[in-house]
Specification:
With 164 residues, the protein is α+β, with helices and mostly antiparallel strands. The chain has one domain: BirA Bifunctional Protein, domain 2, CATH 3.30.930. The chain has 6 helices and 5 strands; from the N terminus they run E-H-H-H-E-H-E-H-E-E-H. A 5-stranded antiparallel sheet has the order 1-3-5-4-2, sandwiched between helices. Helix 5 (96-111) packs antiparallel against helix 6.
Length: 164
């Protein structure tokens, strides 16, 4: 049975405000925290040269721009930029294909109705694991994902049900 963790990706509010006040800046400069987590989770050598990367409500290759455009369209550029979650299996428990499939199912059930998500399966450790980068702002209604205790519990319950 896989274990799960989730935490917020935050950015420096001062940098965000400087961006908003400076029209010459690009969207990518604002999103350093989001850009870093997307770059880390989608590294080619960890994902069999990006074979095991799936976007939900976004294209993996343009997910940063899409996520930032969602934030801009709802004027929600501050606070939590995204959430980074992990689903980790014991060594030998699943194949790379099974790991990725279980991760995509989990992400779709947890966030697929409202949020942009990138699922990346890492094969660089003995224990295969999925990384999820979840936009904190819903593309559907502009509401933020809060990641309250009930959300964390729901994430674990979904994970357990899918893994069974």
């Amino acid at each position: 049975m896989a274990i799960t963790k989730i935490w917020a990706v935050k950015d420096d509010l001062r940098r965000v405000l400087n961006y908003i006040e400076n029209p010459d800046k690009t969207k990518e400069e604002l999103s350093d925290g989001l850009k870093e987590v997307l770059a880390y989770t989608t590294q080619g050598y960890k994902t069999n040269e990006k074979e095991y990367i799936t976007g939900i409500n976004c294209e993996p290759s343009t997910s940063l721009k899409q996520m930032m455009n969602t934030k801009l369209s709802y004027n929600k550029m501050d606070g939590r930029l995204a959430f980074h979650a992990v689903q980790s299996f014991k060594p030998g428990e699943v194949t790379p294909e099974e790991c990725h499939s279980l991760g995509v199912q989990l992400a779709k059930q947890m966030w697929g109705n409202r949020f942009e998500v990138v699922v990346s399966t890492h094969l660089d450790k003995e224990h295969l694991h999925n990384h999820f980068v979840v936009n904190s702002v819903s593309w559907v209604d502009g509401k933020k994902y809060d990641n309250r205790k009930k959300d964390i519990d729901h994430f674990r319950e979904l994970n357990d049900a899918i893994c069974k």
